[in-house]
């Protein structure tokens, strides 16, 4: 009545398993090779002893090592098994900026990118600003000192955490732009700019009118309204984990976020900013 089940001998089972093991191992190795997880990038400078004039060793460890490890671990968990494993964080934030369902992925990718952008533009050996860059910035802000004050005061006035950016909007056209939380300054991520502090709804820097001129419906494949080709050159990180350990809350006017912003200006790598600005040199014409 019942068909007899053929039970394989143990030796045959073990032999079959052993024969298939190399194939499974090889497949797993190939999958691991294809998977490109995100790791904390190596900075150009060794800040393990701190950033001279800006952050102590412990302050740097929290702001860079600990925070980037945390944010990238979470990003890796969010993108595991997806095509985003193969993309860098900038590509991920641009790809997810218009998709509300991907907000957690965008937030973690954008924070990783913004934090790296902040740290890659500071140096333990600051040099004077190149004359060509100073001339360009003075054309937009009347003087370099005016730019310095605007960035520092903008950071100090931000009620919520975020970033203050120096962006290039065109030839001799530079602006200060704020992004709150994990907002991004890139045109392709303009729907997630987060340029307004919802706690105060205050001004968002000299770039606010520039990024808020147009109003139109979102269309696939097009840039968001007002998202002109501004190139980020520099950013100041105002998140508390970056400055609170070394500067405190600023009670009584001592330390605090403003003091951190003032110290940051003194360690900016202006050579890197100048290279990113890509200022054309004037040709010499014969008369």
From TrEMBL:
Gene Ontology terms for molecular function: metal ion binding; superoxide dismutase activity
The Manganese/iron superoxide dismutase C-terminal domain, residue ranges: 132-186, 220-275
One Pfam family this sequence matches: Sod_Fe_C
GO cellular component: cytoplasm
Signal peptide segment: none
Functional summary from the UniProt entry: Component of the mitochondrial ribosome (mitoribosome), a dedicated translation machinery responsible for the synthesis of mitochondrial genome-encoded proteins, including at least some of the essential transmembrane subunits of the mitochondrial respiratory chain. The mitoribosomes are attached to the mitochondrial inner membrane and translation products are cotranslationally integrated into the membrane.
Protein name: Superoxide dismutase
């Amino acid at each position: 009545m019942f068909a007899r089940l053929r039970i394989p001998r143990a030796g045959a089972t073990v032999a079959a398993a052993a024969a298939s093991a190399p194939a499974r191992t090889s497949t797993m190795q190939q999958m691991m090779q294809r998977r490109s997880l995100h790791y904390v990038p190596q900075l150009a400078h060794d800040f393990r002893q701190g950033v001279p004039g800006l952050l102590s060793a412990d302050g740097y460890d929290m702001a860079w090592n600990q925070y980037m490890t945390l944010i990238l671990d979470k990003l890796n968990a969010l993108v595991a098994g997806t095509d985003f494993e193969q993309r860098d964080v900038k590509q991920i934030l641009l790809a997810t900026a218009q998709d509300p369902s991907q907000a957690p992925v965008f937030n973690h990718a954008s924070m990783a990118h913004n934090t790296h952008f902040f740290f890659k533009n500071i140096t333990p050996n600051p040099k004077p600003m190149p004359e060509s860059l100073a001339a360009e910035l003075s054309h937009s802000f009347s003087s370099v000192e005016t730019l310095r004050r605007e960035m520092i005061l903008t950071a100090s006035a931000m009620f919520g955490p975020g970033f203050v950016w120096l962006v290039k909007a065109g030839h001799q056209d530079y602006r200060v732009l704020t992004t709150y939380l994990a907002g991004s300054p890139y045109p392709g991520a303009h729907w997630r700019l987060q340029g307004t502090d919802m706690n105060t709804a205050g001004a968002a820097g000299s770039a606010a009118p520039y990024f808020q001129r147009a109003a139109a419906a979102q269309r696939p494949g097009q840039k968001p309204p007002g998202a002109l080709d501004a190139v980020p050159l520099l950013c100041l990180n105002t998140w508390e984990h970056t400055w609170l350990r070394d500067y405190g809350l600023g009670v009584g006017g001592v330390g605090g976020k403003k003091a951190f912003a003032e110290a940051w200006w003194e360690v900016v790598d202006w050579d890197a900013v100048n290279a990113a600005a890509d200022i054309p040199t004037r040709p010499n014409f014969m008369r």
